Amino acid sequence: MTLTNSWKQFLQTESQKPYFKEIYRELSQVDTTITSIYPTEEERFTAYKLTSPTNIKVVILGQDPYHGPNQANGLAFSVHKNIPIPPSLRNMYKELADDIEGFKIPNHGSLIEWAEQGIFLLNTSLSVEASKAGSHSNIGWQNLTDATIREISEQCNNVVFILWGSHAQKKIPLIDQSKHYIITSVHPSPLSAYRGFFGSKPFSQTNQYLISHGKTPIDWQITDL
Questions:
Q1: Torsion angle of C-alpha atoms 144, 145, 146, 152, degrees rounded to 10
Q2: Which end of the chain offers a freer environment for a tag, N or C, measured as fewer CB atoms within 10 Å?
Q3: How many other C-beta atoms can be found within 10 angstroms of the C-beta atom of residue 143?
Q4: Where are the beta strands (DSSP E) in 83-127?
Q5: Are 120 and 169 in contact (CB under 8 A)?
Q6: What does the alpha-carbon distance between residue 112 and residue 116 come to, in Å, rounded to a whole number?
Q7: Can you state the angle between helices 18-28 and 141-155, rounded to 10 degrees?
Q8: CA-to-CA distance for 14 and 43, rounded, in angstroms?
Q9: How many other CB atoms are there within 10 angstroms of residue 189's CB atom?
């Protein structure tokens, strides 16, 4: 996978800024012989590689990558195909089955098919240390992801931003609500899903908005292995 020209230019510009250099200074200080960093460096920018700004229809914002072995693949909420489906994603699938007629829960957790349709699956941190949730949340990634959200808001039209939980909803001021649509609820985590995520119908809301603005709706169904 290679970066599309539009994201490549954006990331080249951001990479020259002090915060970006500080991120990689912090990453270089981690002793990777004893501590793993997820996802792999090759997969760190998968969201940017798979979804060009010109194709973005939906942004789903996560927090930081999964911190277990071989889970994170560079897409928010997504895991590699041979990895058990994490609880939050399992709850997303459960809501999809209730929300989208005919949706069948897939037997894996890779969301690459969504990314290829124009769903930008962005985590607010792009790396994490093994078994240490949130360990890279303060090394500067939020500067990049805030800039990314601003870029999408400014350069795209009629994008649906799905913001689950208070962490994601802090990004609302970065989004021009005069030309985009924001969907919010509690997070699909097992700790909160029963307090308003289930029954919120974010997926059908998304498609209704896209159709009303002349865009092809998302096919949420994911192909089984």
A1: 110
A2: C
A3: 16
A4: 119-123
A5: no
A6: 6
A7: 140
A8: 18
A9: 15
CA distance 141 to 27: 11
**pLDDT tens per residue across span 154-188:** 999 999 999 999 999 999 999 999 999 999 999 99
What does the pLDDT read at residue 2?
Answer: 54
As given in the structure block, the two tokens for residue 197 are 């995520």
Distance CA(186)–CA(169), nearest Å, equals 10
Q: Is residue 166 packed enough to be buried (19+ CB in 10 Å), middle (13-18) or exposed (0-12)?
A: exposed
Q: Say if residues 121 and 39 touch (Cβ distance below 8 Å).
A: no
Helix (H, G, I), strand (E, B) or coil at 92: helix
> Measured between alpha carbons, how far is 183 from 172 in angstroms, rounded to an integer?
10
Question: Could you give the CA distance from residue 207 to residue 127 in angstroms, rounded to a whole number?
Answer: 31
Q: Sheet of 181-185: strands edge to edge?
A: 119-123, 58-62, 160-164, 181-185
State pLDDT tens for residues 72-89. Answer: 999 999 999 999 999 999
Neighbours of 117 (CB within 10 A): 17
In this structure, the number of other CB atoms found within 10 A of the CB of residue 4 comes to 17
Task: Kindly tell me if the per-residue pLDDT of 44 is higher than 60.
Answer: yes
Amino acid 1: pLDDT: 47
